[in-house]
Amino acid sequence: MCILARYHLLPSSLVLLILLVACTMGCIQSIACKPRIRRENIVVYEVSASIDQCPTIIEENSPIVLRYKTPYFRASAGVVMPPVPRNETWVVGWIQACTQMEFYNTYGDIGMSSWELPELREGRVKAISDSDGVSYPWYGNTTETVTLTGPTSKPSRLTVSMNDNFYPSVTWAVPISNSNTPMLTHITRDQSFITWLVAMNSVTKERIVLQTVQWRMRVDIAVDPDMPLGSRASLVGRPYQEQPHILNYQEPIPPNALGRPNANDAQVLMWRPRRGAPLVVIPPK
């Protein structure tokens, strides 16, 4: 006689308990039988992070703007992913966020322009996505990510890499003025980032942080607006950047590092005069 045929001989509470245990055991067995991707099954090797050992390059080719080009931050890693189960897709790649930004362009004793991230400046968020604006949450979708679609029968070996630098334009003249007279006297920039190597399930959005890198880029340029074009600006301070730090622990990823807006769309250009109220020159997108 089967067990179900005997249920009428048992108290109803005991029958319910038996059914609950049987169901639970079935669920546990089902989960155990299905392969899962876990951090301990992923191998990360040959992680590198560096900033090119060269100074920032200043360009004075335009009578309208000064441009400067910083050395590149570069990150790369090899990853061995375990077999991916059927109906699952995993992406391995780099996610980056800006955690601090000071970017001031001083115009003598008149005032300064400032690129700012208001939410970050005011402490409302801990970080802002530095995605390319399309591939959220990823920094990019070329060398920066690799996609694995299951089922795969054996481990997959892959490499992901990324690079980043600054190449902005700063007006010689006061940005809210109709004059073209050069007034720029100093550029100061100090920006910090966290870059994560992550494996993410495309459907469930489960994220496994594999590596965390912290890095910083600083620029300090003195300008003499009275000098002829081509000889106005000079790099001051340290000529080379501090090298990135590959952490031996994993920083959690703040929510704002994963979605819109990215730093480029969130930033606003302010004019902060020595006297008078600040003025928004370029609003956030």
Would you list the SSEs in sequence order as H and E?
HHEEEEEEHEEEEEEEEHEE
Helix content: 10-25%
Question: Which secondary-structure class do the elements indicate?
Answer: mainly beta
Radius of gyration: 27 Å
Distance between the termini: 72 Å
Number of strands: 16
Shape: elongated
Uncertain segments: 1-33
Tally of separate domains: 1
Q: What's the rounded overall pLDDT mean? A: 89
Major sheet attributes: 10 strands, antiparallel
In terms of DSSP E residues, the strand content is 35-45%
Helix count from the secondary structure assignment: 4
Could you walk me through the main structural features you see in this protein, from its secondary elements to its overall organization?
The protein is elongated and about 70 Å long. Strands 5, 6, 7, 8, 11, 12, 13, 14, 15 and 16 form a 10-stranded antiparallel sheet that branches. Strands 1-4-9 form a 3-stranded antiparallel sheet, with no helix packed on it. It has helices at 3-6, 12-33, 118-121, 263-266; strands spanning 43-51, 57-59, 65-69, 73-81, 89-107, 111-116, 128-129, 145-149, 156-164, 169-171, 186-201, 207-223, 233-235, 245-246, 268-273, 279-282. The protein is built from 4 helices and 16 strands. The protein has 285 residues and is mostly beta strands. It has one domain. This is Protein FAM78B. Keywords: Signal.
Short structural description:
By secondary structure, this protein is mainly beta. The chain is 12% helix and 41% strand.
